[in-house]
Each structure stands twice: as structure tokens, then as C-alpha cells.
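Good morning,

Attaching, inline, the C-alpha cells for the sequence recovery test we're adding to the shared suite. The designed sequence is right after.
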């Protein structure tokens, strides 16, 4: 009886010791500030590129904006990756590149800013705040 209890405790301790590094692994850091978001090749840009700073979006979790891991093992796929928001002409729809940033849903930039505007009035919602005049 004592032997089986001892073995059970040993196996449990070993399992915990092996799983500990998974929980202690450092979280991935967001890319550096100054990410310039431009229209993908093949899309017609009508406004200036957006300079995005992750440090201004620390309240958001990565998954609030990003989804769908890519086949290369990267944490998140680019928005215009094949099978994601790769429709470069449509203004609406799940696969629309434009709607990924300008849609009214909470996952898009504009949608999220509009949702949070009441609680934080300084959040920009005007086009020229993100797309400065060139």
C-alpha cells in the first residue's frame, strides 16, 4: 500500500516538474512600435499608410484583433493571408481586407475604437487620425 502511494506521488511530482516550463515560458512580446500598415500588393490605397503602435493598445489582448495561425507556425497570420482577409476589392464581408480594419464589428480597428469611444473620449475615430495627410 505504501509503495503504490509513494509511486503515485512520484509520478505526479514528475508530471508537474515536466509541465512547469510550459507555464513559466515568457509570453511573446508584441512587435516594436512604428509598424507601418499599408495596402497589400494588388489593392488600391486611397489613404496614407497607418503607423500602428502596439504600446498604445496594451489593454487589448492579441486575440482581440488577431486570429488564425498560419501554416508556417507563426503566432498570427497577416491579415491579407490566403483564406483570411484576402478579398482586396470588397468593402464588406468576412474575407474583405477593408472590413478587417474598417468594419463595425469589435475585431476591426474602427469598430473597436467606436465601441470604446464612450468610455475613453480621446480614442480617435476620425479617418485623418490614423491616416495622416501625406
Amino acid at each position: 500500500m505504501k509503495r503504490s502511494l509513494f509511486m503515485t506521488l512520484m509520478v505526479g511530482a514528475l508530471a508537474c516538474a515536466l509541465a512547469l516550463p510550459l507555464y513559466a515560458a515568457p509570453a511573446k512580446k508584441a512587435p516594436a512600435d512604428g509598424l507601418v500598415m499599408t495596402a497589400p500588393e494588388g489593392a488600391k490605397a486611397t489613404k496614407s499608410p497607418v503607423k500602428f503602435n502596439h504600446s498604445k493598445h496594451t489593454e487589448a489582448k492579441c486575440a482581440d484583433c488577431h486570429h488564425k495561425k498560419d501554416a508556417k507556425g507563426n503566432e498570427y497570420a497577416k491579415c491579407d493571408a490566403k483564406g483570411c482577409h484576402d478579398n482586396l476589392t470588397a468593402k464588406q464581408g468576412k474575407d474583405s481586407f477593408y472590413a478587417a480594419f474598417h468594419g463595425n464589428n469589435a475585431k476591426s480597428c474602427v469598430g473597436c475604437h467606436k465601441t470604446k469611444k464612450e468610455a475613453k473620449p480621446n480614442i480617435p475615430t476620425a479617418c485623418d487620425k490614423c491616416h495622416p495627410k501625406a
